[in-house]
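Internal QA ticket QA-208
Title: Verify multi-chain structure generation after dependency bump
Assignee: T.L.

Test input:
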Amino acid sequence: MKWWMLIWAALVLNASAQIEVRKLKPTVELFPFEFNSSSDDFCPAITHNGATLYFTSDRSGEQRIYVCRSRAGQWHSHDRIRTLGDAKQLGCPTLTPDGQTMIFAAYQHEAGGIGRTDLYVSKRSDGYWSKGTNLGSTINSSAWDSQGSISSDGRTLYFASDRPGGKGGTDLYRCRWLGDRWSEPEPLSELNTEYDESTPSIAPDNKTLYFASNRPGGLGGFDIYVARLQGNRFGQASNIGEPINSSANDISYIALPNSTTAYFASDRSGGLGGYDIYRAVPNPEMPEPVVTMNGTVRNSTTQIPVGADIIITDLKTRQKIATFRSDDETGEYYVTLTAGRTYAITAYHPDYLFYSEQIDVPADERGRNIEKNIDLAPIANENVTRLLVFFDFDKADLKEESLPELDLAASFLRDHPEIKVRIEGHTDDVGSDDYNLQLSRRRADAVKKYLVSKGIDEKRITTVGYGKSQPKVKDTTPEARAQNRRVEMKIVAK
Amino acid sequence: MGRMLRPFLLTFALLVTSLQADEDVLRPQGRPEPLSAPPPLSIVHSPWALGIELGGMLSFFGQNITQHQAPTYQSNLTNGSGIGPFFTIAIDYTLTDALGIQAQLGYEQVHYTMSGFYDAPCETLPGSGFFIPTRIERSSSQTIAYWTGGFALRYRTESEWILQGGIAYHSRSNASVSTTDTITNGTCQFFDDVGTPIGQRRTTSGSNTNDFAADRWSLNVSVGYRVPLSENVVLIPRLGGQLFLNPLAGDDATSGFHPVLGQIYTFTNRQLHALQLALSLWFNI
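Actual output:
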């Protein structure tokens, strides 16, 4: 073979390889955010439905949080959030997926601090953010604590701190919600270095963590790195590469659920000045797809939106997966779920009968959105709610996964001592009438027995078994039968 | 003078203090010094900026008085100072990240006063030939206006300080001189041309532009601090100095010549230099 034939073959092979690489790694395009300014604009935070974007800017001379909303795919006018309380510097918000709770950082906040910059929490109510309250000395230290990122289940908080005991500079920390308090922060020692690690952001899959670091080996300044949770520890962090990283400082990377879009901040040349926010499409390090669920909570009579507390419970482990709230103004809620599990969703408002429903999320439904609107019945005679209780086949013994729901029913009855209820048992159409009548009655009695054991006066509770006489759906499909097997609680006196 | 300078100095101090680095939610140690050269004065991509500057200039005048005969009242008027306003518009063109060149046009009013005491024989009545020694305070005020034009080289440090140096041409527009004599003791009075007493204070004033050089050149240096107000507007408080290369006025033997006594004194080396304190607003264009 002649030498030039060898060179030609090599060139063809190289070109083929490059084409293959291009196929595997699509070109990432960067788009400047519409509301960048000549000052620092950074720490983007977006609600998981992608409808509201918060960011931090010092365009007013002080770092403050701004918000803009999406309409028809465009971000619209930005407003400064003024209700979080006064502080010398305030910013870097992180939001629960429903957008109803915000954790932000502030330096010299009027609510008082544990140390220097601290983390604060604010709740959204009637369309306004409450004044921030300090997250407390369990999380905050006498050092600089900032840049929180809360997991999509609201149960893990990541943040950056320069507290003593770290590896050097600013390090990443994690703490978990224990049901009534946060755990002590633990350093992410597998990711921290003697250099600075900052702006952690846990993706909606609760596994993929983005953060910035100025460790050696990057493209210059702060670069964005990604690491994935393996068990309880994160795997090796990898540089997310160009064009997202540059020779300038690149920080504050966030990913949206089931979306190819990511946002980050950079002070690279060509911007308007200081840090600017950019949109990167496609996200070269996508988190795992997740199941999202959204809907609206309304008054079943008037259809007026209701701001209700919503609890998502994993029915197998009986653990509360998420506790959040629908928006007071719109009634909208949004939550991220892990596929392959069965959940109970419960909406609760003091003025309404609570509502519960079982939600099955098969493992193959990753990337799907479930829309679930909830109608809450006002507390009035004859209004009824289905109790999410479970029995073994052909038995009237309550299964353990029924207990959270019945505890909620007991709590409801304690909160409304003026109410009397009737527990109504129903079965599907399988079996004889007499058998089903007896079974439904025994199941209703089991529910009453549990409620009485929780301190509810038995005179307030009556029971009845309807067997298969009052099906909810007149059909014989497995889905219809599942709907018809139920225990309901009806208000009979108020 | 101190009272007039105080607001400028206070404003400048507040601006500098408020811009000192402090901890924030992004940086535990506050905003660091920029690693690279700062962006051009023009924040957006145009290299041009238009500046409007308003300020006050503190002028210092000095002259030598050579006495040819016995000392006279003029010997006390060797130096003076005063504050006058100035206004400048300028165009800045960014050459590099740190360097720029400016063309400036302006109007300035140099003002200074001098005062001193002297003893003079006072005629009790005009034409009486009877004189008594009297102590008189002489106060002299000069105001000279100039149109100015110049060029400057501007250097912007990484910490947002602005250093400037340049040369300016000053074309005299008009000038006014006012002299007031006040008798501080005795009962003597001044008399007008027809012999009517006019009291113990006498003021003479006039516009005699020829007393001052028509053209002057100055070397200007200044230091300022850059405060961005918005995306396209920058405020720069600035402290500068003007070192004039030629005298305020030529040597003067005329006013010291007496037709009988001859040359009594001459003024030489009549210099005036100035300090400038100004606030300028720059607009990207």
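Spot checks passed. The CA atoms of residues 154 and 204 of chain A lie 11 Å apart.
Status: verified.
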